[in-house]
Amino acid sequence: MAILRGDFPPGSPLPREAELMTHFGVSRTVLREALRTLTSKGLIESRPKVGTRVRARNAWNLLDADMLLWYSRVAPPMQFALKLQEMREMIEPYAAALAAENHEAATLDLLTQAHCSMVRAQNVEEWVRADLQFHLCVLGACSNELLVPLGALIGQTLEGQLQLNAKRADVFNASQAEHTAVFEAIVARDADAARRAMSVLLGVTRARIEG
C-alpha cells in the first residue's frame, strides 16, 4: 500500500532486507515470500547489483484482486470512485444488453432473487448486499465466462461505492425504479432497452458520486 500510495515512486529502491524485516517484524523467509508476491503483481523487480526497485505504473496489475483492494484503501476517495465508475460505464450497459439476449433460466432466477431482495430491503446494509448481487447477476447472465471473474474482482470495491451512494441518497433505495427498469428489460429480452436503462442507472450513480 505504501508503494501504491506513492511513498516509493516508480524507479525508486526499496529499503534493504534488514530494514524491512525490522519494520514489519517478520523473518527473512516471510519477507522474501512477500517480495515474490509483489513481483508477481508487477509492483517491483529485483536485479543483481541493482537491488529491488518499484516498477513503472503501467506495469502494475491493478486488476489483481489484492492490488485493487490495496489501491482502493490508499487512492484519493473521489479519484478512485470516478475511475471505478468509468470502468462500470464502459462495461455494464453492454453487459445488460448481453444479459437480455443470452440469459438462461438459472441465471434469470438468480437475477430475479437479487431484484426481489432489493425490493424487500429494509435498511442500507440489506440494500447494498442486494444491489451488489444484482449487478453481479447481470454479468453472470451474459453467458460470457470472461465477465464473471471481472465482477467478482471488483466486488469488494464496488460494495463500498454502493454503500456510499445509498447513504448520499434521500432514501437508501432511491434508485429502485432504475434497477427495476434494467431488470424488466432483461426479462423481456430487450437488449436496447436494457442497455439504455443501465446507462440511466449509472448516470444516477455518477451524479451522486460527483454531488
Automatic annotation (TrEMBL):
Give the protein's recorded name. GntR family transcriptional regulator
Record bears the keyword Transcription regulation:
yes
Q: Which Gene3D superfamilies match?
A: GntR ligand-binding domain-like, Winged helix-like DNA-binding domain superfamily/Winged helix DNA-binding domain
User: InterPro entries, alphabetically?
Assistant: GntR_C, TF_FadR/GntR_C, Tscrpt_reg_HTH_GntR, WH-like_DNA-bd_sf, WH_DNA-bd_sf
A GO MF annotation of the entry reads: DNA binding
- Domain HTH gntR-type, first and last residues per copy: 1-57
Q: Does the keyword Magnesium apply?
A: no
Print the organism lineage. Answer: Bacteria, Pseudomonadati, Pseudomonadota, Betaproteobacteria, Burkholderiales
List UniProt keywords, sorted A-Z: DNA-binding, Transcription, Transcription regulation
Taken from the record, one Pfam family name reads GntR
- Could you tell me the superkingdom of the organism this chain comes from? Bacteria
Q: Which organism is it from?
A: Caballeronia concitans
